[in-house]
Amino acid sequence: MIKNSEGIEIPLYIITEIKKNEGYLGQLDSLGDGDHGINMSKGMTIALKNILADGTHEMTAGFEYIKEALLEYVGGSMGPLYGMMFLGFIRASKGKEEINSFVMASMLNGAVSNIETITDARVGDKSLLDSLVPAAAAFSESIQVDQDFEKGLRAMAEASQRGLESTRNLKANIGRSVRLGDKTLGHLDAGAASCNIILNALSKSVIGIERGYGMQRFLNDPNEVVDDTIQGYLYHNHDIQILPQNQRVVKLKKINKKVALVSGGGSGHEPSFVGYVKRGLLDAAAIGEVFSSPTAKSFLDAFKAADQGEGVACIFGNYSGDNMNVKSAILDAEDEGINVRYVVSRDDIASAPKEKQEKRHGIAGLYYMWLVAGQVADRGGKLDSVCNAAQKAADNTRSICVGLHELILPAVGHPNFHIKDGTYEMGIGHHGEEGLETYPIEPANKIAERMSNALIDDLDLKSGNEVAVMLSGLGSTPISEQYILLRGVEEVLNKHKIKTVRTDVGNLVTSLNMNGAALTFMKLDGDLKPLLPSTSYS
User: What pTM did the predictor assign?
Assistant: First the structure.
């Protein structure tokens, strides 16, 4: 059970997850008005502002602010439907000091009852009830069997997911989509998706509190962590500055006349991105919220601040938000006479299979792209040459991550997922996404072997090839353990007769406080090898 008076993390996490999935929800609503994600995010943004202004720590009070924002500021059917959902949560929990499994069951059943009083929709009509009703039933059934709160929450989340998936095969029988008839078949329902996101966030946040994940961190306001980080970095690094008109853009104070290098991405990977604004690397960087893309305006401001008349090379990781914002900023830059080209990193081999490399995400491999492109730019290379070098580095770079313990988002206070004690996950994402495979904990040499062989296979490395090797801790991995892993990696490479030309070790591209490591190989040839600078940033 959890204390209601200390449960504000629960509504805050729900808000965070809805806002993070704004684009996804908008895509699902493409058959409708396309505004589902925008409106849900709008309501949650207003609720967050009011919660922070109030300063409350109570779960129920947080739900009150969400309900009010949805009913007052979100139009159409969304506001009333989700307002009634949270009203069910509020009525069942109000006045309760402790939130146990029985209170949670009342919250879920109350949400169902409230919604069913204002709509004719029922399970099978392609609506949020297709996710909510089976979730509530699964939770109640689970706690009746063994009264295990956590098991019930997991059963709820799983049933909600199955309910969401079921809407793909349903024809809309309620709402504006009814007019589309069979065209709605094959599409997930946006309302059920929002419900699923809310219930998953509810499950994860309550489990996190139950497990005692704390926030004993060096923070002021968790919602100001990005700005505080940038300001602190400026005190330590006197060669950089933030733009007066945009506090989320960092640039070198003096930029030589050359092709400018710009990157950007979500915070939480420090020293990336702000830490690589330095001679020989980036001239400017756009900084986003934790694990969220910078805005298009921030990318544009970074282009303008870095441009010295020779063009701008923007080198960033392959994520949907970054792609959209960079491309939008490039169009605006063109209108202002700034020539910008971009190169995308897709080095994470766990994020998509080899035959779908274009869908892979960019993670630690960006480091080598910046090194190589920076050398070409500093030697007077033109924009095409800089981008071609960065692209060649990207084509020859692969990374994989392992996790021993999950990360905790500062504004949320608990993990996104759970790595069971005595196990580790291979192929975790840099934003705390679950891994592809789970193994019992093994000696470091065995873990290094699994990671190295995965990269060797994907890069098709052969005897006699040369590589650059980077091993980065993910935030809370001791430096000593990073070197132990590197030793294991080198043993594997030596066994395959693959020569290491350069090694970089340390917390180079992290993932908040995750205990784990990212391993990156860049395959070298006569073009790339001379472009590796002698300077190491590890």
Answer: 0.68
Residue 217 falls inside a structural domain: no
| Annotated active-site residue in 36, 187, 430, 431 | 431
Tokens 């650059």, located at residue:
468
Give the whole-angstrom CA distance, residue 268 versus residue 231.
15
Q: Is 431 a catalytic residue?
A: yes
241 and 316 in a single domain? The answer is yes
Six-digit token pair at 415?
A: 């993990």
Query: What is the CATH number for 46?
Result: 1.25.40.340
Answer yes or no: are the C-beta atoms of 203 and 157 closer than 8 Å. Answer: yes
Grouping H, G, I as helix, E, B as strand and the rest as coil, residue 32 is: coil
Q: Residue 30: pLDDT above 80? A: no
Please give the mean pLDDT across all residues of the chain. 92
**pLDDT category of residue 416 using cuts at 50, 70 and 90:** low
Structure tokens at 313: 């090379």
pLDDT tier, 434 (very low <50, low <70, confident <90, very high otherwise): confident
Quick one: angle between helices 149-166 and 129-146, nearest 10? 150
Q: Give catalytic status of residue 430 as yes or no.
A: no
Q: How many domains does the chain have?
A: 3
SS3 state at 464: coil
Give, in order, the Cα–Cα distances in Å from 369 to each of 166, 317, 394: 43, 11, 6
Q: CA dist 535 to 134, 240, 281, 386, 391, Å?
A: 58, 19, 11, 19, 21
pLDDT digits (tens, 9 = 90+) for 120-145: 999 999 999 999 999 999 999 999 98
The one catalytic residue in 187, 269, 361, 414 is 269
Residue pLDDT, tens place only, 322-349: 999 999 999 999 999 999 999 999 999 9
CA dihedral sign, ordered 404, 410, 413, 416: negative
pLDDT tens-digit map of 2-22:
999 989 989 998 998 898 888
| Full residue range of the structural domain in which residue 164 is found | 2-210
SS3 content of the chain, % helix, strand, coil (to 5): 50, 15, 30
